[in-house]
Amino acid sequence: MLRSFLLFAAVLLWAGCAVQAQKAVPEAVQATFNEKFPKADDVEWKLEADGNWEVEFELDDEESSATFSAEGKWLETETEIAKDDLPDAVRKAVQGQKVKEAARILKADGTTVYEVEIGKKDLIYDANGQLLLEEKD
């Protein structure tokens, strides 16, 4: 009985360590983040289902998040903005709908898109108001 309990406890301890090891931010990811956002505050990391790492942080009184590949490549940065800060064409595209949140997303290829949360959907637009993607929350 005691042997079974000790074996069970050892398995639980090993599983807990394995989970913690999987959640450790890779050094390459951390290094790229620190280089790109050296003054970031209130940093919180999470591993996404696709294997990329997302970090939420504050920078210059703005709430932002950035996504990095597991190898440390920066993929995009999303910064919350006011609805009034959306490009005119995007505001026109969502006119008459209740916008919960808005964000500007700078992608690694240099393009900027805009995310607008309406109801239970995230809508991604280019600066010309062209709908690029619709995702359910």
Provide a concise account of the structure shown.
This protein is of the alpha+beta class. Helices cover 28% and strands 41% of the residues. It contains three helices and eight strands, in the order H-H-E-E-E-E-H-E-E-E-E.
What is the succession of H and E elements?
HHEEEEHEEEE
Give the strand order, joined by hyphens, for the main sheet.
Answer: 1-2-3-4-5-6-7-8
**Most strands sheet:** 8 strands, antiparallel
Q: What is the CATH architecture annotation?
A: Roll
Give the key terms.
137 residues; alpha+beta; Nuclear Transport Factor 2, Chain: A; eight-stranded antiparallel beta sheet; 3 helices; 28% helix
Fold topology:
Blueprint: H1 2-23, H2 27-36, E1 41-47, E2 53-59, E3 62-68, E4 74-81, H3 88-93, E5 99-107, E6 112-118, E7 121-125, E8 131-136
Antiparallel strand pairs: 1-2, 2-3, 3-4, 4-5, 5-6, 6-7, 7-8
